[in-house]
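Input set for joint prediction.
Command: fold jointly, output tokens.
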Amino acid sequence: MLALDIRHLNKKYPNFQLKDVSFQLEKGYIMGFIGANGAGKTTTIKSILNMIHVDSGEVYVLGRSMAEHELELKQDTGYAFGGIDFYTHSRIRTLTSVIKKFYANWDDDTYNSYLRRFKLDENKKVAQLSTGMRVKYSLALALSHGAKLLILDEPTSGLDPVARDDLLDIFQELVAGGEISILFSTHITSDLEKVADFITFIENGQVVRSCDKEQFKESYLLLNGAASQLPQVRKQLIAYKSNSFGFTGLIHACDFDPSSDIKAATPSLEEIMIYFAKKEDAHV
Amino acid sequence: MYNLVMKDLKLGVHPAFFVMPLLTGALMLIPGWIYFIVPLYFCWITVPNMFGQYKAQNDLLFTSMMPVSKLDMVKARVAVLAGLEILHIGLAMIFGLFTNRLYPNMEYFFFPPHMGFWGLCFVMLAIFNLVLISMYYKTAYKYGGATVASITGAMLFAVTAQWLGIRSPLLLDIFYGDGIHNRGLQASILIGGIVIFIAFTYIAYRIAARRFLRVEV
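tokens >
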């Protein structure tokens, strides 16, 4: 079953456009939603949540149309927006007492167990929590109302490596049962190397590719060669960097001739992102 | 909608603004003062602070993420605003009763606090709501222009009503003269004011709801 099914989203702004954005997330998996700043990640997430009016396209959450069943589906969905805080001068206890009234399936026992697990003190104000603890608080809220789909926009931004690793472990535990699915937008690709099952890569408002993480990485090759070898592949390269030793460039795996003597390796997610951004820059 | 009202009351409105009506209401005890100023304190102080708090705390995004309809979001906000206004006027009216007892022979230059005057206060707040609510929901977070325009509208009404009340013999009689002893007339002005307050606030809600449906968060 699909936890999230995005079909042909289009949204035009004066200086930016989402173009035919489509991808699917299977139930029980983590999907990394990657792209440079301004690529369209947050706009896509806001479209999913019906916060902006798309020009065309459809969003299905847990098999039902978001446009038609927004309120019911929001009962089953949890969100965390990294870097955006709400009512920071309120105590967690007060904020929770307000929020829980909106959710039909709220479970106090689950909430208290997550508070203990995340070591959250209800008497603290939101402003007194570290960035990582705020994300954990958002997760505790989402899981206490039985959210089946977690949409997390840059949840690990601003966290130190230990806090990030801790959070990533939690994400993996959550999906282990097969009931919860996570769409996780970030530009910190190393996080996704650790936890993501699928990758959706968005660039300049368009989905470049959405598939299994390993398949995604293997569909590109990072070439390393001497300057004299560059002309052999220049036309096929997505983008490349030259230096005094030669060149490094990204290529679609299918465009590469394995009999060539240019060194080729599977790129990291970060390298893929960087070379795509370089390609965009070259077109500006 | 009830949960949204409680959300605004618990998170969005600072507790000091629930005490404010008592403090501003007590200003009614100043003999012969410009009593229009008492409900205007709500417009000058409470509203900019409340709406500033909503903006600073990202209330629009916070509420939009929850399973609530946009119409309920507007309805709840309007209910909270109108509720606080009624609290302000209600307490000021109670203090006004004491004022009339404390200073029975007072020569008033500005409107004395009788029922008819409170009817005018309701009309003033009706104008305030119509401008504020309908303008604010063009964006649902920018409140500066809406606040300035609505306060200007309310004050223009207050100044005009006060000027006419002094200059017009008919109005002078109704609000200062024998008219203040005519309970039926006074009550009908008060009821008329309340009806206008309800009607304008409802119209403001309808305009705001239509505009808010087009707002992108």
